[in-house]
């Protein structure tokens, strides 16, 4: 999966119309909430990446979400 494909998947998963880019702060994405985290956990699981709720506690930017799946992104 390319980085652009991953960003599209992220936007689809959290159901946002906003364009996501690496430097975007997660607190600026209105749809990024506890429900989005649960959806993202499922998305990562489907990708074969094991995550837990605590993995999301210190994330600040979209780049942090990318880093969680780094070995799955070309």
Description:
The chain has 74 residues and is mainly α. It has a single domain (3-72), classed as ACP-like (Non-ribosomal Peptide Synthetase Peptidyl Carrier Protein, Chain A). Helix content is 43%, strand content 0%. The chain has three helices and no strands. It has helices at residues 3-14, 34-46, 62-68. Helix 1 (3-14) packs across helix 2 (34-46). The longest helix is centred in the middle third of the chain and has 13 residues, at 34-46. The mean pLDDT is 96.
What's this, in brief?
This protein is mostly helical. The chain contains 3 helices and no strands.
Sheet with the most strands? Answer: none
Net shape: globular
Number of helices: 3
Instruction: Indicate the structural class.
Output: mainly alpha
Cα-to-Cα separation, first versus last residue = 6 Å
> What is the rounded Rg?
11 Å
CATH class: Mainly Alpha
Uncertain stretches of 5 or more adjacent residues: none
Q: How would you name the CATH homologous superfamily?
A: ACP-like
What's the β-strand tally? 0
Averaging pLDDT over every residue, what do you get? 96
Strand content: under 5%
């Amino acid at each position: 999966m390319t980085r652009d494909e991953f960003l599209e998947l992220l936007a689809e998963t959290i159901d946002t119309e906003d364009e996501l880019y690496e430097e975007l702060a997660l607190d600026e994405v209105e749809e990024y909430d506890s429900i989005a985290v649960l959806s993202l956990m499922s998305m990562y699981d489907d990708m074969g990446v094991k995550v837990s709720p605590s993995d999301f506690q210190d994330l600040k930017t979209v780049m942090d979400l990318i880093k969680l799946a780094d070995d799955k992104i070309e």
